[in-house]
Structure formats: structure tokens, C-alpha cells
Amino acid sequence: MRHVQTFLIFFNVTAIYCSRLNIGVAVVAMTNADTTNPDFPEYDWTEKEISYILSSFFWGYVCTQFLGGILCKKFGAKINMGVSTFVSALLTVLTPWCVGWGGWQVFCAIRVIQGLVQGVIFPCIYEHLALWSPAEERNRLGGFSMTGVDCGTILAMAISGIIAKGSMGWPGISYVSAGICFAWCLLWLILGSNSPNESKFITESEKQYLELSVAHKNDSQDQKIPVPWKAVLTSLPFYALIVARSAQNWGLSTMQSQIPSYLNGVLDMEIQANGLFSSLPFMGMLVMSFVYLMLEDVLRRKKILTLKGVRRVFNTVSFWIPACGLIGIGFLDGDNKPLAISLMTLSVAINSGNIIGSALNTIDLAPNHAGSLMSVVNTVSNFTPFISPLVVGVIVTDVHERSLWQIVFAIAAAIFFFGNLFYITCGTTDTQPWDAEDFLIPKVSQSAERGYNKSIDDLGVYNKGMDLETNISDLNKTEK
């Protein structure tokens, strides 16, 4: 069942990313009817208005990340992820009709609401992984789950171009995306489970295995372990993780949202080829995700690298090589189409190592609070894809001008470089002291503890197998 839960997370990430990112190709189709099915409306939106549409999802997305961690602690992942995905699918279905009478302003409003409902999902995903993934399988199961990002991106870019060119036109992009989300909701309703203890299909042997091997107790949701926010917000490794994820989101959002516009404006590709070529980097990303998973397994099993070493090496490779690739892409134009596409594909594919490199570090630091930590990390880091399209809208005043795209790619490359540098310098994979279930319970001072232990030894009631509180209680009884 832990593999079933992993597949369900993969499917969910695929579905929500498809509905989130199809906007890149859809906007090109909606504003350029010559390259798509001409039987559907065409809109004369400015580059600034398009930048608002592309970024509006994240206006809502960043607002509910923290709420997602709280709701997951209270209600569990099943109901939160199910309701959020279902509502998002409904909004996707309504998009073509609403844009017809409300224009780009209504389009932005729908995207904001979609961002609000999808914002609670990723904190739930990490909490779910922490409950279902044994420490020795965490990279494998977590890494596979997150390949849904690549799969959803491929579907959004490759299939969206074909759909827009076909009989359904650009409205069909919304209908297909919504259908995928509805299909996931049905499977999740039947097979999804907050924890092994709640699963109706898990075997007793697997339940016992998970109880013994998962880094924290599977009934931790029932225990309602309080989050030590003061310790969390003064933790340097936690800030290193935030910086790394912010840098990743900036770089990846630049590639995801701007590749269709770059291919259309600079390389002069029509919509169907645009969609297919836009998806090529993410096909490479999907393939490389499995390469990284196998490589990590070999490096850990043969003890060539520790978990900390794997995180640092993989994150460095997945940040710094794409940074160089982005710089190179900025010097290419329509005369170098094959080289531009190859370089773009290689850069994005290699970036897939960030999942093992830093994305799963949340569970390393605090498995008991993975969802809550992810809510903060995602809140902060998702300000970057909210800002990135706006920055592009200001810089790229003419989508056909290669020098303007050079600036966009150079900014993303610099953020990639310095973000990883801070992460490998200050980050760690050690479980933090503030993850302990009793961290917020007042501790007896060391001097008092020595005094109690001496008194207990003198009375002959000290039991090395018991905790301090139990022995103190026995001492009080003996004194009485």
C-alpha cells in the first residue's frame, strides 16, 4: 500500500501540474489564432496582461501554503487533497466559458482561486510521504512521487499544442486537464488513506514494517505534536532549504512559463511544434529523474556517499549545470534552432536532480513536522514564480528581441548559482533537535537531574531503563 500511496501522489502531482501549466501553451493559442484552430475566439492581450495571467495562479498559491500545513495536521491529507483537486478541476472546466465574457481579468481571477485551492496540496503531500515512507526508501518513493511534476509538465506542453490545433481548439486544453483531475479524485476516494493505521487494504505485515521503520509514529496525527515555531524559525538549515527551493522555483518557472514564448518569439515556431518542443526538456527531466534515483541507490548502497553527500552533489549538479545552459541559450537565435532546443532540453533534464538534492530535505530535518515545514518553505519559495513572470513582462517588451531574453536567462542563472552555494554551505540532512515529540515539554536542568539521580541511587530505586520523569515519580513515592 505504500507503493499505491506513492503512485496516487505521483498521479495527483501530474494532474495538478497539467492544469497549472497548460496556461503557457494556451495563452499562445488564445492570442495567435493563425497557428491554432481558427474556429475559436482570439484575444488581443498585451505582453503585460499576459504576464498577469501567467503569474496570477501564484498570487493565490502563496496565500494558502501555511494554511495547508495546519489543515493537514487537523484533518489529514485525504480530505484536503481530495477537495482541493476536485475544486481545481471544476474551475478548469469553467475557464473557457468565463474568459469568453470576462476577458483576461476574469481569467486572472480564476487562476488566483485555483492557486488558493491548490496551495494546500503540497504540504499534505510531504506529510503523507513522511507517514508512508520508511527512511531507507524515502528517496526512492519521494523521488518517484515528484516525477509527477515532469509528467504533468510534459502533458501540459506536448498535448496542449496538439489539442489546440485539433477540433476542440484551445478550450479543449481545459477540458482534458479537468478530466485527468476528476479521474484522480475517484482513485483517491477509493484507495487514499491518511496513514497505515487507517488503510482498509494494508496487510498486517506491511503495517508492522512501517510502524518499526518510519521515522516517526504513524499515529502522530492523533498525538497533535505542537510545532516549535521559535526553534524552526531560528534554524539555519531550515533557511538554507528555503533559499534552495526559492532558487529552484525561480529557475524552473522561468523555463516552464517562458519557453513557449521564447520558442514562438525568437525561434519563430508555430503552436503545434511549439508545444512539442516545449515539452522535450521535461521529457528529458522525467527520464533523468529515474537516472538520479538509480544513481542515488547505488551511491548509498555501496556507501560511496552519505545522505548528506548525495543531497549536496545532486543539488549542485542540478543547479549549476542548468545555470550555464541558460547563459548559453541567451546567445542563440532562430539560426540555431537545433542547438537551442538541445541546450534547453539538457539544462531542464539535469535540473531534475533537485528533488533528491533538496526537495526531500524537509522530511530529513523534521519528519514529525514535514507538512508544516513544507507549508512555510512553499509559501516563501513560491513568491519567486509569482515575481518571475512580472519581471519578464517588464524586461521583454518585444518577444522577438533576443538580447532581452539574455537578461531574463542571466538573472535565472545567477539565482541558481548563489542559491545552491548557500544550501551546500549551510544545509544538513540531520534530524533537528526540535523535531523531538517532547521538545516543548519543560526540561529538568542538568544540575537538578544530577541531584535527582544521586538521591535515587542512594535510595536504590534508580532504573536505568526508565526515563527521568518515571524515576522522579518513583522517588517521590519512596520518599512518601
TrEMBL record:
This is Putative inorganic phosphate cotransporter. It is found in: Membrane. Pfam families: MFS_1 (PF07690). The chain crosses the membrane at residues 7-30, 50-71, 83-104, 141-164, 170-191, 271-293, 313-332, 338-360, 372-397, 403-424. Belongs to the major facilitator superfamily. Sodium/anion cotransporter family. Keywords: Ion transport, Membrane, Sodium, Sodium transport, Symport, Transmembrane, Transmembrane helix, Transport. May be an inorganic phosphate cotransporter. One of its GO terms (molecular function) is symporter activity. One of its GO terms (cellular component) is membrane. GO terms for biological process: monoatomic anion transport; sodium ion transport. It is a multi-pass membrane protein. Residues 1-431 form the Major facilitator superfamily (MFS) profile domain. CDD domains: MFS_SLC17 (cd17318).
